[in-house]
Amino acid sequence: MKKNRFSITAAVLALLFTTVTHPAAAEVVADGSREHPLRVLLIPADGGTESGTKADYAPVFNAISRTTGLQFDLKVGQSYGAVVEGMCNQLADIAFLGPVAYVQAHKRGCAQLLAVGVEKGKSVYYAGMFTKADAPIASVKDLKGKRMAFGDVNSASSFTFQIAMMLDAGLDPVRDLSAIRLTGSHANSLAALTQGQVDVAALSFDSYEKAVELGAVDPKTVKVIAKSMPIPYPPLALNSKLPEALKSRLKQAFATVNKAPGVTPEMIRGYGGKKVDAFDTRFSEDEFNVAAEKLALLTDDLKGRILKKGAER
After folding, report:
1. DSSP of 216-279
2. Helix, strand, or coil here: 73?
3. What are the angstrom distances between the C-alpha of 176 and each of 138, 140, 222, 280?
4. pLDDT tens per residue, range 123-146
């Protein structure tokens, strides 16, 4: 566990250097003005470049700027954990988080729900396990003795829900997998599969579909082993310490941005830059209980053993 604490600390330090350019900057109150834009921190969900991740979310924040006059400064965290620490250490005013990372920040009193994307009337997505099309693997129970790639250890759909599916099937990830690779992102896990470095990859269906659209993987060469239950859509969160008037202003802006004059459908984007129909700012906090329940299955002992095995080469 010492190694885990060190890596999180290193990520936070890296985040400090990318978000605060000098000591006085931390004391400046971001108010959405051009001089002091609201600081938005994004999880590196798909493992692309920083500029690519920013490009996924810039359209909707540009739309909010157009309707409110508020200015935003978008940055990408080193990891999911670093984004949580950024919110809890007052280095961010708004964050895009995975459901598990949101639960972690919310439990610490650092984050409140801003909005979730809505697609075809729903605010859910799915985690999956993927393997080569010709692999002799048909279900979760067939994972015994196989090599598996996971994304970030604080990711709902590239780690937590897949581990939970293994536990539900009576498997111990550490004992039953021959090797664990912690790649840090959905895209990296899929790449590890296509390159033959692992037998199975854990990632979200949204990330898989994005990879197919970008030509990063041929869907004929990959098959699905398992699909999770519906997971609450990755949320946008507010720093709990923001002024209440600003919180209300932001919620109203996201609730109506899809109908705002001058805002096109191409600007309404959510997880991974995917177009969504609207944003729901009244989504219940209780919907994230399922993520909290799956997170609870990951005891400190189990997570420590997974990290230790993931570090083996």
Report:
1. SS-GGGEEEEEEPPPEEPPPEEEETTS-HHHHHHHHHHHHHGGGSTT--GGG-B-GGG-B-SEE
2. strand
3. 16, 11, 23, 41
4. 999 999 999 999 999 999 999 999
- Pull the structure tokens for residue 115: 């909005």
**Six token digits for residue 263:** 């805002």
24-35 pLDDT tens trace: 444 567 899 999
* Contact (CB, 8 A) for 275 and 268: yes
Secondary structure, 3-state, 14-46: HHHHHHCCCHHHHHCCCCCCCCCCEEEEECCCC
CB atoms within 10 A of CB 38: 24
Cα 98 to Cα 270: distance, rounded to the nearest angstrom: 12
CA atoms within 13 A on the CB side of 123: 22
Q: How far is CA 180 from CA 5, 8, 151, 170, 184, in A?
A: 19, 19, 11, 18, 12
Residue 35: CB partners within 8 Å, gap ≥ 6?
Answer: none
Cβ atoms 264, 170 nearer than 8 A: no
SS3 of residue 89 by DSSP: coil
pTM comes to: 0.86
- Which residue has 């209980």 as its token pair? 289
Other Cβ atoms closer than 10 A to 70: 19
Q: What domains, with CATH codes, occur in the chain?
A: 2-120+233-288 (3.40.190.10), 127-228 (3.40.190.10)
Token pair for 116:
């979730």
Q: Give me the sign of the Cα torsion angle 187, 189, 192, 194.
A: negative
Read off the tokens for 124: 């859910």
Q: Which residue has the tokens 């780690």?
A: 159
CA–CA gap between residue 277 and residue 29 (Å, rounded): 33
Task: Say which amino acid occupies 136.
Answer: P
CA atoms of 161 and 127, how far apart (whole Å): 7
pLDDT tens, residue by residue, 168-214:
999 999 999 999 999 988 999 999 999 999 999 999 999 999 999 98
